[in-house]
Amino acid sequence: MRLFGYCAALIAALVLVPYAMAEDAIPERVDCWTNMTTYKAFQTQMESEGYDNKDPSDRITFFETLLSDPETGCETSIPALFLLANQHFESRSPQEYFPVLERALSDPLFSLPEVRAFRENLVSGGVLYSLTENRVSEGYELLKGETEILETPSHHVRAIYAFFLAHAGDVQLAESLAKRVFLDAGRQKKLTPAERLVYQGMDPREQGKLAYALTTLMMTGAYESVVENLAGVRVDDSTSEMKLLALSSVPKSADPAVALARLGENVSELQKSEAEGYLSPDAARWYYAAHFLALRASAREMEADELLSVAQKKFGKSFNADAEVETWVSQSFALVPSGGVMDVQDTQLAAPIQPNWPWEAAPPATANCLVRFNVSERGKPINIRAICDDDRFLKSAENALKRAEFKPRMVDGKPVVRYNVVQPLEYR
Length: 428
Known about the structure:
This protein is mainly alpha-helical. It has 3 domains: 6-152, no CATH class; 172-333; 359-427, Fusion Protein Consisting Of Minor Coat Protein, Glycine Rich Linker, Tola, And A His Tag, Chain: A, Domain 2 (2-Layer Sandwich). 56% of the residues lie in helices and 8% in strands. It has helices at residues 6-11, 26-35, 40-48, 56-68, 74-90, 94-106, 116-132, 136-143, 155-168, 171-185, 193-199, 204-219, 223-232, 240-248, 256-262, 264-275, 281-297, 301-315, 321-333, 394-403; strands spanning 367-375, 381-388, 409-411, 414-416, 418-427. The chain is globular, with a radius of gyration of 24 Å. It starts with 5 loop residues before the first helix and ends with a strand.
């Protein structure tokens, strides 16, 4: 069904619009959340009402009518509230949305421990709306009292809130939260090659969390922390954009030579990605620009001149490193959680990947593989390379991706190449 559309898939329970109810009825509503295990009855009702064919205004009327009916039970009202909230969010009307959000946050229900996760979603939804609609000041006034929610295990909420606070000018809290995101990630430990291989298939949500935290640190001018944190975590090969951001902060750090040395592994991985064709044309330009400026700031002038010469041969004599980095950083600062320069959205499979077990390594042999590739405009993997902790599985892993199909990346309604995708495969 199309009941849970783009907005629902993006940030789960975005905003839940409470309806008027006396406080003594709250426990019953909590039991509803706890006991509700299926939306089947509600979905059946929606289908009978022809929901999918209704226009947005009729959907809002449908939900409001449903919620005003005293016979409506909580097993129906809960998904109805959820979908009504989505409609208000998608309408992009601050006059309607912010009052709805304020009403929800002031409802006693959302102060109860049992529904803490839903309050987190209210906060993250308000942050997302404030950023996408360029209404940060209004959103900040409404959400600045929600700092308690940041003590949540949901690091993704904390990362988005930090990014939002940086835009709102609350620099001290933004920087503090961003640093906590990296601490909470717990990636500082040294990993064995096998452990790193397993970890490298990083969840896009995890990538997004670190991307927002890193961008926040740059926005607040915490350049030393940018270098320190990216050098201290294990990010996989699909996170080139974060490596580029860290590299671009080197000239602004207290000791550029030391900062560049600390990012040595990240720079090497960027060089390899560019050479193997896993950086997009834009990312390749930004890599050369950021690396050149980092070398120049580190007084490694000969290396800087050599790199600039290579860049001018690739991109033309008009290549301007300062302008390229300025463009890259400003676009990164404009990133919002629904997408942007740091493309950390999931690459969707059009059909499941079904690797064949290699004949020379029959069960019970096991393996972890990581396959790196680009996705063509037609959704076919290209430029495929696999690494496995057991080399007998390499060919099988690469062949599995050759047979796979992905949904192409769309930009302005047109399919484009998606660069630098990392797909983990487990043989168990």
